[in-house]
Amino acid sequence: MENGQVSFEMISKAGEAFSILVKALEYVRTGNPEMAEQCIKESEKLMNEAHNLQTQLIVTEANGGKNEFSVLLIHAQDTLMNTILMSTIVKEMIKMFQTLKNGER
How far is CA 65 from CA 3, 4, 57, in A? Predict the structure, then answer.
């Protein structure tokens, strides 16, 4: 797969995962934690797929191959990184919401 195609795939999968994470927060806020959990799982699957694409690029370089750098590839890396960060924050926000809802400390 060419770098351009890998970049588009990474952007697509990571971007969709990001959108699903936003939905997860909405589900928790509106009292539907089961759907939120389903969204988290779905987003993790997409993030893993995007991460596997990134790993292919790293393996290529590790084996002495060259990757062609472009703004598109940088955007793909940024999108994946932001989605991974968003996932961490959303999971913590869901825990905090549930803690507050249950009156726990």
Answer: 12, 16, 9
pLDDT confidence of residue 86: 98
pTM: 0.91
pLDDT of 25: 96
Contact status, residue 9 vs residue 53, Cβ threshold 8 Å = yes
Please identify which residue in the block is written with the tokens 């952007």: 11
Buried/exposed 34-71: b ≥16 CB within 10 Å, e otherwise: eebeebbebbeebbebbbebbeebeeeeeeeeeeeeee
pLDDT tens, residue by residue, 55-71: 999 999 999 998 888 99
One-letter amino acid at 51 equals H
Cα–Cα distance for residue pair 30/72, rounded to 1 Å: 36
Give helix then strand counts, H and E, for the chain.
3, 0
Q: Annotated active-site positions, please?
A: 75
User: Are 17 and 43 in contact, with CB atoms under 8 Å apart?
Assistant: yes
